[in-house]
Design brief:
Number of strands: 14
Strand order of the largest sheet: 6-7-8-3-9-10
Radius of gyration: 22 Å
CATH architecture of the largest domain: 3-Layer(aba) Sandwich
Distance between the termini: 28 Å
Structural class: alpha/beta
Largest sheet: 6 strands, mixed
Number of helices: 10
Low-confidence stretches: none
Helix content: 25-40%
Order of helices and strands: EEEHEEHEHHHEHEEEHEHEEHEH
Mean pLDDT: 91
Oligomer: single chain
Number of domains: 2
C-alpha cells in the first residue's frame, strides 16, 4: 500500500488501565478519502482507540501516525488537522445554535474572512437556518447531531474522527447522517467512524471488527461476508421469539435474536428448514416464515466471536 495514500496508520497499538487491557496490540491502515468503520460492541475498545489517535490519550505501547504526524510525539499537530465528534455531541446546551458555531469557530481558529461563510454552510447542512437562535438543548437529537458534525468540521479538516456519532439517534436521522458522511468522503475527507450498529457497516468502504480489544476481522463488507460466512443464514418469523431461540439452541442449532426475528446459521438449507419447522411446531409455536437470507454483518460478527 502506497504510504502517500495513507491517512492513518497504526502498528501494535496498546492501551491498558491497570490490569485491564482495553486495546490489545492492534494494527490497521486507513486510506485517504475512505470511510473506515471501526465496529464492535460497547466496551470493545473503539473509543479508547479513537482517543489515542486524536491525541487525547497516550498509548501504553505501539505506534501510529495521523496525517503523517506521530500520535505520541506530535499530538498537538494532529489536533490541528482533524475534526473530532464524540458520542456525547460536545456542544454547549445553554448556548444558541449560532453561538455554538461561533465558539467552535474560535476554537479551531477559522480565518475571520471565512467564519460567516462556514457558519451559513453549517446552518444549511444541518437544516437549522430557521433555528439559529434556538437554545441548543431544545433541539431534537438529529439536529443536535448535525450541528455537532458541523462544529467538528468548521475548519475543513482533511481527517474526521466520529466516535459513535449515531448513538441514541432515530433511524431516519441515522440514515441522513450517513448520507452527509458519504458526501464528505466523496469530496476527499477521510472519515474514521466507530459504531456498535452492525447495520451501518455497509455504509463503509472498509471496516475492522474489534472484540475485547482485538481486531478479529478487516476488509470491505462483502469481503467479510465471503471470507467468514461459510454457512447459510435463515431468518425465522415466529410468535414466541425467546422460547423459539431456547428450543433451537437446545437442539444444537446456532440461533440469535435479530429484532423481532431469529437468525439461524446452518450447513444445509434443504435439511435444516424441515427440522427447524418440526421442532418449533412440536413446541406449540406458530411459524409464520422461514427463509434463506443474505448474511448481515451482524451475522458475520456473531460467527466470529463464537470462534474467537
Amino acid at each position: 500500500m502506497n504510504s502517500n495514500n495513507i491517512a492513518v496508520t497504526v502498528k501494535d497499538l496498546r492501551r491498558t488501565f491497570g490490569e485491564f487491557v482495553a486495546v490489545d496490540n492492534i494494527s490497521l491502515n486507513v486510506k485517504k478519502g475512505e470511510i473506515f468503520g471501526f465496529l464492535g460492541p460497547n466496551g470493545a475498545g473503539k473509543s479508547t482507540t479513537i482517543r489515542m489517535l486524536c491525541g487525547l490519550l497516550m498509548p501504553t505501547g505501539g505506534a501510529g501516525t495521523v496525517g503523517g504526524y506521530d500520535i505520541i510525539k506530535q499530538s498537538e499537530e494532529i489536533k490541528k488537522i482533524i475534526g473530532y465528534m464524540s458520542q456525547r455531541f460536545s456542544l454547549y446546551d445553554d448556548l444558541t445554535v449560532e453561538e455554538n458555531i461561533t465558539f467552535f469557530g474560535g476554537v479551531y481558529n477559522v480565518p475571520k474572512e471565512k467564519k460567516n461563510e462556514r457558519k451559513e454552510w453549517i446552518l444549511e447542512m444541518a437544516d437549522l437556518k430557521d433555528r439559529r437562535s434556538a437554545i441548543t438543548k431544545t433541539l431534537a437529537g438529529g439536529f443536535k447531531q448535525r450541528l455537532a458534525l458541523g462544529c467538528a468540521i468548521l475548519h475543513e479538516p482533511p481527517i474526521l474522527f466520529l466516535d459513535e456519532p449515531t448513538s441514541g439517534v432515530d433511524p431516519v436521522s441515522r440514515r441522513n447522517f450517513w448520507h452527509l458522511i458519504g458526501e464528505m468522503s466523496e469530496a476527499g475527507t477521510t472519515v474514521f467512524v466507530t459504531t456498535h450498529y452492525m447495520d451501518e457497516a455497509d455504509y463503509c468502504d472498509r471496516l475492522a471488527l474489534i472484540y475485547r480489544g482485538k481486531i478479529i476481522a478487516e476488509g470491505t463488507p462483502n469481503e467479510l461476508r465471503q471470507k467468514y460466512m461459510q454457512r447459510d443464514v435463515l431468518e425465522i418469523e415466529v410468535d414466541r421469539v425467546v422460547e423459539a431461540m431456547e428450543v433451537l439452541s437446545g437442539n444444537s442449532i446456532d440461533t440469535a435474536i435479530f429484532g423481532s426475528t431469529l437468525h439461524v446459521t446452518i450447513e444445509n438449507v434443504e435439511m435444516a428448514i424441515p427440522r427447524i419447522e418440526k421442532l418449533l411446531k412440536e413446541s406449540g409455536m406458530v411459524v409464520n416464515r422461514i427463509e434463506r437470507i443474505i448474511p448481515s454483518l451482524e451475522d458475520v460478527f456473531v460467527t466470529l466471536i463464537e470462534v474467537s
